[in-house]
């Protein structure tokens, strides 16, 4: 038929065509109707609310920014409790219940043990299609709050703490008969006194509380991370996650400051006035109200869980963002539908694990995370205690120093790491290089732990009586106190005018005690020599029940070097997480994070407190003696030289391991074909 020709058809021929047009229109209408009803159902499932109650005015909170806001507070609470309140209270708890660092190391590891056990089921079931990640997180917060309530129970299950056993713990020239009754008083005091029985059963209660903490926190940094990553654009993901991890880092700092201030309150402030005991927070036997912060933390966990419960499985607009993503997974030569799909049944779980373990970049990033986790977990638990003993400062001041370092260095480094990934628009290979360089710099600044102070003068332990050269072993008895019959279970340290600490007024040979305001003063001490220190016109006591002031002035240098170390340590945390999420298939992210945390905990954070606690115990040169010979006791005096060298060696070995593993992750990374020519830069659409 030529152009312009018109072909006429009969009505009989037109009828079937008209019928077909009508049928097509009706089919299109039905599809549009079904699509609109499906959109309505999807919209209903993406609304904010509880148990079907989702009014329109609540939907302003159903955004990624508000979800990040509440998740940030959840992450901060985890850090406040586990890495803040608990860590700042370790030395206080050891003295209060007569525990050793090994035992508290076991308690600290309980968090990671429970998290390790819960990671596979939480990430596997929480990461499946149709699962609500916010509900997993909210339930976890409730469990974590319950753990905080259990952690403070030992304070109420034992008797009142008594810092001094006997009213007159002085030298009695009558001999051992008078002081044997004094020793009996110390043993009868049991849990109440510093020199009493070691309450080792409290370790298991603390451990149970830490298990609840670990189980409750396990969804926060696995499902919480993937929930944020799934509901924001790829370009903004690193910024959102940087903010999330920054708040998680700020949490411990808040815990250090809050816990340090609570230690200024006497532990039994409701029933005992410390002034009547002539005690101040500067006394060596002062025990602060370590347990008060856990009441606040438990209440906050319940409050934060409520809004997180209301968030939908997927935020509005998330599906469109997922379609725009370009995979940067490590190229293995296999189809994503075969190797990247997360198993849908328990029988396929081993195949999913092997698929991830066959990714060398993911494997070495996990090992780097384990070495970083070992050093971070170890120092988070025991660095406040090391600062307290190394520089002879109070637990409260040590907590403030940790807060001063952690807030700007940890929080700032974490946020800066996420920001630089976005600022420089780094691809996976460039991110790993950034982690490597930051870790190299951090390894150089581990020398901060070589900054130490000489051992404080302690009569019979670090120096002899009358400042003579001490013997090889601690010898608390000397000629000046040989006729006093003193008990070594009654630890009541005093500071003499000669700048030397003494185990007790009795072992210092003091025969007279007086109470002035909130202090105890001791006179006529035969073991204390104050030549040139006493003004004849102004009578002064030979000793007081305070700590001797430290003459070491290296604390500012330590803080400066440790600050730089923390900045570069946390600078690599956020980029390492981004690299982990990018080097695996999108469907593997939740499960990959769970598998990574298993390795980090198994090889890093679980053994870390045990290793650090054992080495700190090895640095002890004077142990508390107990009436029960089979029970352990807390360490009273540490050797500053060995404790600083042990910390430095551990930090250096871990950092060198991280350098090796980040190097291997970068070397073995094979970018996908679409981005192999980008030279470390992403193509911006």
Describe this structure in words.
- This protein has 685 residues and is mainly alpha-helical.
- The protein has a domain at 64-158 and 199-455 and 552-675: MFS general substrate transporter like domains (Growth Hormone, Chain: A, Up-down Bundle), CATH 1.20.1250.
- The protein is 56% helix and 4% strand.
- The protein contains 21 helices and 7 strands.
- It has helices at 11-45, 64-97, 101-126, 133-151, 153-157, 176-189, 202-217, 223-230, 234-262, 292-309, 318-323, 336-339, 349-357, 360-390, 395-423, 428-444, 555-571, 573-582, 589-605, 607-618, 640-668; strands at residues 494-496, 501-502, 512-516, 519-523, 543-544, 620-623, 635-638.
- Strand 3 (512-516) and strand 4 (519-523) form a beta hairpin.
- Helix 15 packs across helix 18 (573-582).
- The radius of gyration is 32 Å and the shape is elongated.
- The protein starts with 10 loop residues before the first helix and ends in a 17-residue tail after the last helix.
- Residues 1-42, 175-197, 333-344, 531-538 and 675-685 have low confidence and may be disordered.
Characteristic terms for this protein:
685 residues, mainly alpha, 56% helix, disordered N terminus, disordered C terminus
